């Protein structure tokens, strides 16, 4: 043992560029318009808030460690066997648990070039090598992914729809991706934004999980259910994968308030439909407004848009970001995703979207 060296982390850990979340504050502005983290525009169901508050006097107790009630509510809502559902502290935790269980040093973890950043970060944290497959028109490319599968590949992560591009793969393309993978490779379909999608050819992945041993679907309560601060996600798995995740997760990995609010949120269909209708309306409205201003967009099916800007330093993404920031509007820079000339803008409330659109119009007109 080399005692001279002192304490060092495992190799590669210090290569990880830590995930930087969206900004939430602007100095001097009391309530900025927060469109940087794909949070919900409307906030949580009133029933979820009440369930959360009702637990205030009980937080000295450990949570129920099997998330039984929440898994049953999810099973009921989606027509799934609760025994095949595993809950986590956000889908981030489930991504990390899948990596810890199925990948390690020397293994490869495949993802799409502009896929969610936690896939490469998580892969490195277990010593595996992240491999990015190129995309076509900022959309996951099944052929490019399959071409990069090697005998070291352990997991393929696909966010569907993808963050930050907002694009998606139809059910047939996802089935083709699965059909091209060897049974030893896990396909993790991260459907964090599934509830927002309004396309006939889209499926979140349930039927693939039902007919394969090597597919999991990940879902979150952070987006349409508006519970990001509580940290709650779930995985629908083949029984053997549920068994593995239940072995590696912490015994109380989901908090009691999160479990209670989650059950109330799943059962509040009215709140869900309201959030969906809001997004349908304002995603379309905002996309049309940006198109009218000549801002190129990927066709988003989620609760955000990815807007492209020119290279010209007077009008580029950094200049737009700074201008919106000066108006109290927070958007997300995309350089960490390899998209330095794009900004990601979450769909907020109607008045927020009107304010952003007006600010962008003013910016464009002045240049
Ligand atoms: C594609 C995708 N997966 C997972 C997550 C993480 O969600 P959670 O809050 O459930 O950890 C996000 C959050 O932005 C996301 O965009």
Please write out the topology:
Blueprint: E1 33-34, H1 46-54, H2 68-78, E2 85-88, H3 90-102, E3 108-112, H4 118-125, E4 129-133, H5 142-147, E5 153-159, H6 171-180, E6 186-190, H7 206-211, E7 215-220, E8 233-236, H8 239-248, H9 256-267, H10 269-292, E9 304-308, H11 317-326, E10 329-330, E11 332-333, E12 342-346, H12 350-366
Parallel strand pairs: 1-10, 3-4, 3-5, 5-6, 6-7
Antiparallel strand pairs: 2-8, 7-8, 9-12, 11-12
Helix pairs in contact: 1-9, 2-9, 3-4, 10-12
Can you tell me about this structure?
The protein has 367 residues and is of the alpha/beta class. Helices cover 37% and strands 14% of the residues. It has twelve helices and twelve strands. The strands form three sheets. The chain has a seven-stranded mixed β-sheet with strand order 2-8-7-6-5-3-4, sandwiched between helices. It has a three-stranded antiparallel β-sheet with strand order 9-12-11, covered by helices on one side. Helix 7 links the parallel strand 6 (186-190) and strand 7. Helix 1 runs antiparallel to helix 9 (256-267) and helix 2 runs parallel beside helix 9. It is globular. The N and C termini lie far apart (63 Å). The mean pLDDT is 96. Bound molecules: pyridoxal-5'-phosphate (PLP). The site of pyridoxal-5'-phosphate (PLP) has 13 residues, from helix 3.
